[in-house]
Protein: Nuclear pore complex protein Nup155
Amino acid sequence: MARPLNIAPALTTAKEALSAAGQHVDTYIAQDKGYPELTQLLNTTSSAHATLSGISDVDYPSLSSASVGLADLPQLSPAKRVPLPPELVEQFGHMQCNCMMGVFPQISRAWLSVDSDIFVWNYEDGGDLAYFDGLSETILCAGLVQPKPNIFRSHIRFLLCLVTPVEIVLLGVSFTQPHEDVGQNDYSRCEMHLLPDPLFSIQSDNTYMLRVKSTRDGRIFLAGKDGCLYEIMYQAQDGWFSRKCRKVNHSSSSLSFLVPSFLNFSEDDPMVEISIDDSRHVLYTRSEKGTIQVYDMGADGCSMRRVTAVSHYSMMKHAMYYARTIDRSNFKQIVHIAAIPCTESSRLHLVAVTQTGVRLYFTTIPFQGGWLAGVGARDRPVTLALVHIRLPPGFTANAAQHRPTNVHAALYSKGTLLLCASQNEESDQLWCLNPDSFPFQRSLMETQVTHVIDSRTWVIDEVPAVPILTPRLEPVSDKPRVPDPPSVVTQHTVMSPAYILLSSKGSYLVSKLRPVDQLRQLMLNNMGPDNPVVESFFTLHKEDQACATCLILACSRASSDVQVADWATQAFFQYGSVARLRTYMAQPQNPAANLFGSTTPLVGQRPGSQYGTAVTSPPTTGLQPSVASTPLTASGYQDTPRTSAGSTTQPSNDVEFSGKLKGLCLYFGRIARPLWELHVAVEATSVDYGPKRNLLVTNFDSSELAWVLDKMKALKEFLDRNSQYTGVAESVIATGMPGFVRPESVIGRPVGREYTQLQQAEAENVERKALQHLEHLINSCCEVLELLQLLCYHQFHNVTAALPQETRDQLKQMTFRDLVINGKEVCDMLITALINCYIGDNATTDAISTKLRDICPSIYSQEDAICSKASELIKGAQQAQTRSVKEKMLQESLQLFKTISQQLILAAVCSEYHQARFYDGVVDLSLSAASKRDPQNLALHYYKNGKPPEDMQGMQAFMARCECYRCVTDILDELVLVSQEHPTSPVVPTYPGPPPQPDPNQLSSQDAKAYMEAMMQKALSCDDELFHVALYDWLMEKGLKDRLLQITSPYVEQYMKRAAQYSADNLHVMDLLWKYHEKTGNYPAAARILLKLAERHSTDVKLQQRIEYLSRAVMCAKSSNLRTSTSSEGEFLQELEEKLEVARLQLQVYEAIARHSTANPRFKAALIKLNAELVDITKLYGDFADVFDLYECQLAIVHCAGHYDQQLVQSLWQQIIDKELSENIDKPADGRMTILAKKLQALGRIYSSSERYFPLAFLILYLEKKSCELSWHPSWVFRCFLDMGVGLPKMLSVYDGHFKAKDPFWQTCAQPLHLLIVICALLNTFAESASRVAIHERRQFINVCLDAIANYKVELEATTGMPQSVQSILKNFKQLQAKLDRLQIAKT
Structure:
């Protein structure tokens, strides 16, 4: 399917808006990543020494102070008390030996063991009581284990490990769903079942086990009363050297399971607690006396190695060294240890809590140096070093004496510390220390709250929160993992953390309130947002963070949150501040800025962060904001600092956006964050039964897409409901400051107090523009998300398989951010592939088009829907049974395409029409598109004006039209190529076997010719002049000049003239122009162009071609004279003929030089000159013929010029003869005579008609002399001339004259009778063949001959001595005289 391509400027603006909003959001996403980790908050820089905190007022700021005003800020939910089931209360009365209690928070169950029986119930409501009484010994402890994979059947979801003094039993735990509404993993609502028969049972060797702890992957560890760490190894079947289930002592030896425990035990220091770091595969144990041991389970978590052990005395000694002013009693007893996972810190690995609430932080890997020199997941523990001491509240100079004491139970999880401190035997005081209200600080700041529990707590544990959005598993990497962000960043994806406290009276459930829960409760408690407490909440969290928190409530769709959502919306606008233009001066960073009159670190990103240096607001009194405000320039979105620490600049005006807009950007970034930087698609290998293929599958889970889309839609609805926000600027101009805005809440210290209404309106306008861009980004996100959902529904990998490889590669590299902001073309290609899947299945596209229009109207517009329908018609036409139906469907598709031709990907549609053999549609659609893209015909004006470069608008229109025309010429190219193929040529097979079946869709050369001709006729019938120009250009480019000359169109002549005007040096254009003039009968114009071509100074026209041009010019001039004869035309014809004659002489000179040598540079240069231009006759003689001794050419030039110089002519003839003789000197006499005769005959045919240039008497005399010298046959000279056509009478006259001249040469060469011998032979030739003389001249010639013979006889008879030679000649003359007499008689 060919999708439309919108080329309107609006799209460019939309893309710029998306890009600007994306960059703006990126700064807030980076801001959310700019939080410090626990190591930085505690200022821990080295494992070699420890730091101390908790002694400053800023460590535990008071929310009840007047500057904060949040004394009533709820931090823990009211405790929910659930009493023990009545059946369990009865069991206490039956206890004989021992009872224990604990919780299984993974399944929302608590357990109670009474002697050998164990009872399990749901601690949330006290229901679903189950029990197991299959043991005979007292149960010491119990633990719930996630089983190892592929060992038990699927219905066994957990293992219950029960430990007695005699045996250790593993029971299977399964669950059933009471009804379909309950999820399979919703264990709190499912019914629990204990399998009656143990899965495994092993002897405990009389070792008392005090704790059971398991890893995430199913390893089971036991804390022994003997101080040893044990592990229960279990597997599916027995092995050669191992049983299905066995016990291993990791504290003594790997073979300890072979040694009975009574041979090696110690009960002096029982092991009472196990803590496991599943993120690093490290296990920690605590003994009753406070000794902590470290065990390394290996990088894969499958091995075990004891690393080190640190006694309580050693820990206390180190702690006292760094906290010298703190009483020793605060470090005496450790009541709790907790592993710190890599999601919380990369360097701190363990925290230990003492009886007074002091926290001791440890690391297992030495470190030293900068903030970012973290440790990787693969680095294994080597030590246990104290690096920080955190004192509980109550140790500051100004604090009250209220502090935790007698702590007997504690829980540390994700930065939150819960302490159960005994007030008496009947009640506890619950302390909660929580840093959530102070994110993004440079030091650890915690709130404190206490809560009374009316019974003594036996167990405290955390209830694992079910994440709203399932977190992704990060790949194992050597790089340190980035710790999880603070609660304010993730509160919309994570439920409130809950804790379970178990006592003999029942269970107590409390939840730690997230900031959003606190805001909700504040508004509920005060019946709305219009109160100082809510305003203080905004002050505490700063406007942007508080507004982002407000949006969680305001965008809630829950029916129970309708009132709260309305209140949150009011708070959002009431306390969100407004945008301002401000003048500020950068302040030097001061790490001791005042919080409540004492010191506190300034707010900002962690030092050395890849996200840049923090920007801080000027110091103010009261609580410091939790996130730095960033000024933004009016020209765009800027989050870079203007100054560095300690530097000063001149005041500068910036726009500081309101808390509302910042909150919107923060909230958008947080809900988009799960997908924002993830790649959209990844490669995967097919797993079906066919050959393996590389598939492109989506990288997003359907639940992720659904959740993010739901939040995006809710945010979009919020903005739609509160559209007045986008009109703030107008209200400011009309009424000044908006009524619902509190000016005093604006962050930043203006220069002076006065801001004019105009300045305020300017700031609001900048914010409104940014908000509009953000709205555009939200809409685009929603559309892309819904499109991805639709693609997943239609098998994403099948859709992407239809994409071009280039697009697939592009998609693999794109993140979700890229797809939303810069992925319009890729989305278009995905939709095209989806539509093509429907078309390929012969399914109608109406339904999918409607769906696409509903979910992504800006990506899939009405034009796209029309395009899809038209493509469907093309596909249907290709499968139509009759020609009429096919033609009808193609015409319908053409009409549809014409309605959107301006935005169409024209080449793709034309290609489809090409496949359907609908070439009229190709022409019509291309011309329609060209007309719509240039409705004012600017391109033609641009073309006719000579394409001026300054006419940019015309140039763009011209290029747009040319792009449309190219679709036609490209298809003509293909047709020409196919038409030139030779189907009769044999095809070499590529593989053995029968010949392949011919492709029915393959065009034959005959069909291609027919289609091309029909397409040409259709194209030439249009009245688009520029299209004619494009078509003529194509014909010229393809060498189809003859086809161009056959066109009868008024545009051809204009095209020719314009081409000649702007391409005067183009040989092909000029060559075509004279042919066109000749074809149209304009012979004078053709002759003049031909003359211009002949006289062209260039090497691209050879001399022979110049002569042809002149010959054609002469013919055209003569044709013109036949039609209209004028004196000027006659003179022009004479000029042409003379030039032609000289040109032929030039060719003669050229050929003569070429016969000599082309390798000689001198000759080569002469040939180049002769080829480059026509030379005048004087230059031809002087520079070429004379210089190169071309005597024949000199003779021809003299003859042509009409220049007569007897001596020169005779000299040239003599040189010609001498040169011919010298060139053939090595040949025999007969051969030389023949060659010379041929040369003379060739020249004689040219010059014999002109006596001045053919000196017969001179030639005969010179040749006879040469013949005499060379002793050649006496008759060859006159026979040569006879063959030339020289008559016998003239020959006799010349010879007679030479004889009578008595040239002394003959005497000198001793041949005085040579001429008489030749004359005798000449006359004898006549006597033998009288027909050589015309019959009417024969009698007279006989008389002349007889008279001459008589004279010769007299001469001979008068010779003295009458030598033999004379007698012989005399005899011959007498015989000849007799023959002539007979001829005369016969004539008579």
